[in-house]
Design a protein that fits this description.
Largest sheet: none
Strand content: under 5%
Structural class: mainly alpha
Number of strands: 0
Mean pLDDT: 92
Helix content: over 70%
Order of helices and strands: HHHHHH
């Protein structure tokens, strides 16, 4: 494992990747920590900001192999930008179940599944983790 491929990448790729890795860490804390507490809400706002940064920064990243156009993954970023405020609104309105489902979907779909695709050969994170 080496960070060299990521550190050699353009700045927005680095912002995107480090925000995503930070969101994974904070997301795990959120799943394990008690819910409804002040720390949960404070860490949650940090996670929301990181997820918004991950989604927004993705729009500055295109692939030369796709003609520098957006790919299907950018659709996921748009989904995150729609669902994220709705999940916050849900808990503010007292719908904890909807909030919980939406945040879990964003964590697993927006970070874990999307992140798994970044580990493929030819991708920067694949080179970081596996040295492809």
């Amino acid at each position: 494992m080496t960070l060299a491929p990521l550190l050699a990448a353009p700045a927005m790729v680095q912002v995107h990747a480090f925000a995503a890795m930070s969101a994974v860490g904070l997301g795990l804390v959120q799943f394990l920590a008690p819910k409804g507490t002040l720390p949960h809400r404070q860490v949650g706002w940090g996670w929301v900001a990181l997820m918004a940064l991950v989604a927004l920064s993705s729009f500055s990243i295109t692939s030369a192999s796709h003609g520098n156009h957006y790919s299907w993954i950018h659709g996921l970023s748009a989904y995150v930008l729609v669902v994220l405020p709705l999940a916050v609104l849900a808990v503010r309105r007292g719908n904890v179940a909807r909030h919980k489902r939406a945040m879990a979907a964003l964590f697993f779909g927006g970070l874990m599944i999307a992140g798994a695709f970044t580990m493929m050969p030819g991708r920067i994170m694949g080179a970081v983790v596996f040295g492809w």
